[in-house]
Amino acid sequence: MSTYVLVHGAWHTGDLFENVADFLREAGHKVHCPTIAGNRPGDAKSVGLDEAVRSIADYLENNDLSEVILLGHSYGGMVITGTADRCPDRLRRLIYWNAFVPNGGECLNDMVPPHYVALFDEMSAASGDNSVMLPFPVWREAFINDGSLELAKSTYDKLNPHPYATFTDPISLSRNPAAMEIAKSYINCTEDTALPQSLGWHPRLSEKLGLFRLVQVPGSHELCFSAPEVLASAILEAGCD
Amino acid sequence: MSTYVLVHGAWHTGDLFENVADFLREAGHKVHCPTIAGNRPGDAKSVGLDEAVRSIADYLENNDLSEVILLGHSYGGMVITGTADRCPDRLRRLIYWNAFVPNGGECLNDMVPPHYVALFDEMSAASGDNSVMLPFPVWREAFINDGSLELAKSTYDKLNPHPYATFTDPISLSRNPAAMEIAKSYINCTEDTALPQSLGWHPRLSEKLGLFRLVQVPGSHELCFSAPEVLASAILEAGCD
Amino acid sequence: MSTYVLVHGAWHTGDLFENVADFLREAGHKVHCPTIAGNRPGDAKSVGLDEAVRSIADYLENNDLSEVILLGHSYGGMVITGTADRCPDRLRRLIYWNAFVPNGGECLNDMVPPHYVALFDEMSAASGDNSVMLPFPVWREAFINDGSLELAKSTYDKLNPHPYATFTDPISLSRNPAAMEIAKSYINCTEDTALPQSLGWHPRLSEKLGLFRLVQVPGSHELCFSAPEVLASAILEAGCD
User: Fold this and answer.
1) A143: containing domain
2) Model ipTM?
């Protein structure tokens, strides 16, 4: 029995990981799906990266979790990297699932193509509260390309505006991920085009981990919705010793 | 029920898409497999790219097709791009299957490695009618690498010399594919080595589409012969809304 | 019925290919699994690349093998390339399985990232006999990432220190692989991270073969242990005419 903590991506909440968590629980594991500060109902959209990281580090401490297999999806990679720097003694392994891998001083936007940054800058300026949303056509074609239109719509309706400061705040780390001694895995969905594959997740970002275990599965950036059981299998392969 | 028009690649005819079309028809769709000017029995091999494009645009108009899902394979990507520029109002979505994606002013040879251009230049010069064929060893090892030798031979026998001007004529477009407002998908066969993968189809050419839906399946450049049902499934995933 | 000769990688022996060979034998083929000089029990670890190549060329001659389908895994790619240069008339096809492809004058270390060369230099200097071993964490995470911890341990116990001169000796060839007239295939395991995928096996090394047949399968660098039947199927697809 292992303890998994699944940290969601931008626009998501922990609730949206519950169907994946159920498959892991059926396999005998304990699973937590916290929601990062800034994405909880009622959270101010002015939350920055430090507060986001602190909310997950606090979650581990408040629940006194240990030997945790800590997974981060997409933006969640920023958060688990910061958490690993703050409470390494509570962790057994990090799993990045099509996730950003920051070195100290980098922000998420540093790893994103310029046309996305420009789109986000524009949307956040127009939002009134420095939040960003993803236009539906981008969600449907580039994030959940392996799902039906119905699934794309029903899941889009569950997203929440994302606090943009968490994309523009540089992360502060006492050491870079490659220098962290903890075991690391990277799950890469081979049809993930949320980042253009010419400037993609793997190997561009995964190799910033130093030694890591690669697990690949077919699927999009939103495999948690389009095939949660496939994602759960990949997590188990990534999470074992 | 959707209307699919499947546009073949160089050396092929529309007939060679019929086994794929049958799977789509079984799924309830209407499917057309026209042959591009220059590849029809008896066509002069002096046909250029404009005439090739016009033959497909005319096909849509003569059959009064609308809401068409227009697929192009390989060289067929040149033809559907030109067709989309000429009659956008008849189309619902473009699907490129390991296909060339030209910007205005580009020719197919601009996207092909120099050693292929040199081979084609030589063959066309020797042909007497400015046509090119593919040497059998290239067909067998790099185009239909996932088929048996028997299949490689029986399909090679059905190919026809290709009008080389369609590779060297620059395409004229009123706007580039990324600026076309129509929905677009790209099907990438992951073992396709018809272009060397270091200078390959996806993401090098697919990303010229701007926002597009990626569908990937195992298989070679000639999946229409080696596993038509797999290709048909990919087309349905690429073609839905 | 074909004759296969399977040439293992660094740290391995021919015995470790026997479970793959059994699947090929069941399919009706004759299979040999020789051990390269330097990896046989009792061999001096001072063996260089010439002696390694000669041991396989001699094996073909001593057993009077002809029409051989000669497969090399990883370092074994150096050895089969040298063998093909010495006795081309005994061969029907070369199969590289996530293997090095040298041009004349290149050594294996020329194709490996600097941090691996530095690690090997250090280990060989400390070995007393110019041999190198692979640290277990690298084996577990980057070589056999698709296996269980138990499998990683039980197979690691069967490895032997590798004669480092075979990594640093340049190969002498009368012609480069692309110029060899023999048929060639490359099997690429898509989760192989023994070389970082940013500087990986395929297409970086495979394309040095010139015209070749690509076969890809899911799996790690050590698919011979984690899924021998999947590797055997890939070999049959790569080995047919």
Assistant:
1) 3-239
2) 0.96
Instruction: State the pLDDT at residue B87.
Output: 96
Low-confidence ranges of chain B (pLDDT < 50): none
CA angle (A117 as vertex; A113, A118 as ends), nearest 5? 115
Closest to B143 measured CA to CA, from B96, B191, B97: B191
Give the model's confidence band at A134: pLDDT under 50 very low, under 70 low, under 90 confident, else very high: very high
Would you state the structure tokens that stand for residue A153, as one six-digit string? Answer: 């719509």
Q: What is the CATH number of the domain that holds B77?
A: 3.40.50.1820
pLDDT tens digits, one per residue of C183-224: 999 999 999 999 999 999 999 999 999 999 999 999 999 999
Rounded distance, CA B218 to CA C184, Å? 20
The CA-based diameter of chain C, rounded to the nearest angstrom, is 47
Into how many domains does chain C fold? 1
User: Closest Cα of chain B to C174: distance in Å?
Assistant: 23
Which of C182, C198, C201, C211 is the mutation pick for testing B, counting most B CBs within 10 A? C211
Contacts of A191 in chain B (CB under 8 A): 214-216
Q: How far apart are CA A166 and CA A79, in angstroms?
A: 9
* Paired tokens of C144: 């056999």
| Chains near C (3 or more Cβ pairs under 8 Å) | A, B
- Report whether A215 contacts A190 (CB < 8 A): no
Q: What is the Cα–Cα distance from B4 to B76, expressed in whole angstroms?
A: 14
